[in-house]
Amino acid sequence: MALGFGQKNVGIDLGTSNTLVFLEGSGVIINEPSFVAKDTATSELMAVGSAAHKMFEKNPPTISVIRPLRKGVISDLDATIGLLNYFLNVAYNNHPGKPVAIIGVPSGVTEVERRAVKDAAQSAGVKDAYIIDEPIAAAVGAGLPVYDAPGTMVVDLGGGTVDIATISLGKANATRSTVYAGDAMNDAIKDMVLQRYNFRISEGDAQILKEEIGSANVKASKQLGSATVKGIDLISGLPAQRDVTAEDVALAIASPVNHILTEIQTTLEESLPELVSDIIDRGITLTGGGANLRFLDRAIADTVHVPVFIAPNPQEAVVNGLGEMLRSSQLRFKE
Description:
alpha+beta, Nucleotidyltransferase, domain 5, Actin, Chain A, domain 4, five-stranded mixed sheet, 12 helices, 18 strands, 27% strand, disordered C terminus, ATPase_NBD
């Protein structure tokens, strides 16, 4: 792959929840929510990233605030182009020149979806875009020896998807991707609070509950107590506060967690026995923001009987892996 000569190239982790940008020579310079705000009448872009996220669920009917990627794929092409164009302008401070971009996508996306990502990036101003499976980038960013013959395994837990792969010699041997990820957990928490507490909360508040008291172990969750959340009491119709227990949150997300455990087990079953033997020795590495869910590493280890480790700074593993690919001529990557 020929990178742009004399131009600082970029690695982009185009995530459902957050977009991270690695600028060659500078490191990770952007980590903002993947949100776009548009005028509903004119479709004019009004805000992107953190500025748009502040409007989310507070916007009037004249403003549409969306995430242009859902479940790891583009759902609004124009908004995605606007998002990429904004972040590229921030990265380059409006300096002339077109970079080459390498962009991480979930391993389960189709060729049509890959082309959509590439077209969006080129429409946003990059010279060329190369699409990389996120598990490979995450493994590189976590410091795993992905180009060695012995097998490694990575589980990248994002907002829209969880991507799982066993890797050897720079290639994925077996991969699986599931949408039972961070967003699915947030939806499950919202539904639980609605049904159990007669209380309506926002997606952002569900995320806060997950971060503050969420866990992958119902029994152990009892030690985490409860957290207070604001919302609408459906009986009175008035704003109120409720204390939600960690046990209820753990019960709510048990189904997405069990789907993840099943997908990990299936990926191991589909991998070459020789690689599984290596993985038993080397363990499984968790990356992505979801890696921080309490007791998830223990739940995975108990299910598949393999040691589990959380990568340092797991949310930036993919974008750091893309950056490492930009830096090192020894790390070969292609579509």
